[in-house]
Amino acid sequence: MKKNKQRIVGIVATLAVCAGIAVIGMTMGKEKAAVIMDSQGEEIAKLTYQEKEMLYSCKDGYESYIDLVCKEVVNLLEKQENCTEAEAQKKIVEEELQITTFFDKASFQILKETYEKSPIANQKNYAAGISDVQGHLKASYSFHEGEEERNNLLISTYAGSTIKPLTAYAPGIEEKKISWSTMYEDSPYTQYTDEDGNLSDWPINTKPYTNEMVTVEEALKESNNAVAVKALKDFGVEKACEYLEEKFRISVEAEKKIIQEEGEEKILGNLALGYLKGGVTIPQMISAYTAFANGGIVYPCRTVQQIQMEGDRYYEKEADGISAFSEETAFIMNRLLKHVVEDGGTGKDAQVKGLDICGKTGTSTKFLNNWFIGITPQYVCAVWYEADENSYMRNETVPIFRSIMEEMPNDLNKRFPEATHVEKRNYCKKTGLLATEYCEEQAEGYYHEDSIPIQCNCSD
User: Fold this and answer.
1) CA 332/CA 93 separation, integer angstroms
2) Is residue 361 scored above 90 in pLDDT?
3) What's the half-sphere exposure (Cβ side, CA atoms, 13 Å) at 316?
4) Which run of H or E residues covers position 288?
5) Distance between CA atoms of 120 and 111, rounded to whole angstroms?
6) Residue 195 CB neighbour total at 10 angstroms
7) CA 81/CA 91 separation, integer angstroms
């Protein structure tokens, strides 16, 4: 759809991208129809069935959310009724289901208006989604400039550095391979011969290599690519694949095949730097980051709250989170991600006065994919856009996130869950070990109580 285009009652609108589901005008006649409602019980879309297709009508701008609802409801009926996709679509309309969602109109307006006023409003593709910390999607917004329709919430793309907490850092801390102050050398992991026959460093960092030792905390804060690769290598590439697949429901079939055929070195960059062959979607990343907001529990990103059939309850959303990490690991990662949005971090512009914010930036080659995924004690918000090729514009997602959070209703009394068996200790910035009175440069870190570093030997 074109920017500022208004939907007109009775006019056939553009096709949606969801499983053959199309968008139609608002004039329905007396034909059978299912109804989609927002969290307040107000109608936001109607579904009809024509020429063996399920069609929907909705207000302009709601399409990205309604696509997700339709996909979710169809999948639900396929499982519960043991039927095909086509049969599920037909049944939804013929049974005139009433579908209540988590959609919040005010949140949608905040997403839409923030993007349209932002520096990236002239880009061809951008999108955002915001949920509560249980993955209930409150709103989404997607814009695509072009002839074909495209819902950016359903498009798989590169995650960039937003993948690092899911593959390199949180699993490593959970398995006690690394800690807050584990140190790695800020140097290339390897070198390769480029097209001109010259040796080039890999991976490329946003800053020149210092060849000095840096902590995990510093590396995550500055989004150091080489340290992420080294930490992932120490943890184990195959194990990281298991985490993505089993905990976060992110496909790594291509990567597992490459491991079998060519070895894990071939996919270090895929997993450490966010270049999965199958890509990721915005709902997948929102879901994954719920783990860092509520004690290590991952909740799927969902739109459907309840479904009624003939006035009776057919389906109601139940808690279906799975444990990805211990509450100790989740809390440590939460505090690490808080440092990302503090001074010196790549997400420093995300700060909102009074709010406890954590998050991670991500970009892909030539800044084509740009991400910020932020969490508060109430929300998980993913902001994404695709820059024009060779534009090399800086990642503008962080200030967009901040603008969204400034407008959302925030309860400043809410807090992230604490963890009982985590200790805050001072460590030596020179060695990463537990600080003593002899350590001149010290900083605070959080550690599993059974994996606190040994004491520093600065006095020796």
Assistant:
1) 47
2) yes
3) 2
4) helix 282-289
5) 13
6) 6
7) 10
Per the CB < 8 A criterion, the answer to whether 396 and 345 are in contact is no
pLDDT at 23 > cutoff 90: no
Nearest to 280 by CA among 304, 255, 316, 309: 255
35 residue type, one letter: V
Structural tokens at position 416: 């992230």
| Segment (H or E) for 228 | helix 225-235
Peptide bond into 203 cis (omega under 30): yes
Q: What is the pLDDT of residues 375-415, one digit of tens each?
A: 999 999 999 999 876 665 678 999 999 999 999 999 999 99
pLDDT digits (tens, 9 = 90+) for 45-102: 999 998 889 999 999 999 999 999 999 999 999 999 999 999 999 999 999 999 999 9
Nearest to 167 by CA among 83, 74, 238: 238
Q: Report which residue type is found at 389.
A: E
Asked if pLDDT for residue 120 goes beyond 90, the answer is no
Longest dimension (CA), the chain: 86
What pLDDT shows up at residue 2?
29
Across the range 289-318, mean pLDDT stands at 93
The partner residues of 309 in beta bridges, in order of sequence, read 312
Using the Cα atoms of residue 340, residue 343, residue 349 and residue 354 in order, give the sign of their dihedral.
positive
| pTM (two decimals) | 0.92
Tell me the C-alpha distance between 176 and 409, whole Å.
38
- Please report, for residues 58, 192, 213, the alpha-carbon distance to residue 74 in angstroms, rounded to integers and kept in the order given: 18, 48, 52
Tokens 């990567």 sit on residue: 255
Q: Are the C-beta atoms of 16 and 23 separated by less than 8 Å?
A: yes
CA 132: distance to chain centroid?
A: 13
**From its phi and psi, is residue 33 left (phi > 0), alpha (psi between -120 and 50) or beta?**
beta
* 115-133 per-residue burial string, b: 16 or more CB within 10 A, e: under 16: beebebeebebbbbbbbbb
Q: Which of 2-16, 98-112, 141-155 has the lowest mean pLDDT?
A: 2-16
CA 21 to chain centroid, in Å, comes to: 25
- β-partners of residue 442 are 428
Q: What is the DSSP letter of 87?
A: H
**4, amino acid identity:** N
Count of CB atoms situated within 10 Å of the CB of 11: 10
Buried (b) or exposed (e) across 278-299, using 16+ Cβ within 10 A?
ebbbbbbbbbbbbbbbbbbbbb
| Contact indicator for 37, 24 with CB cutoff of 8 Å | no
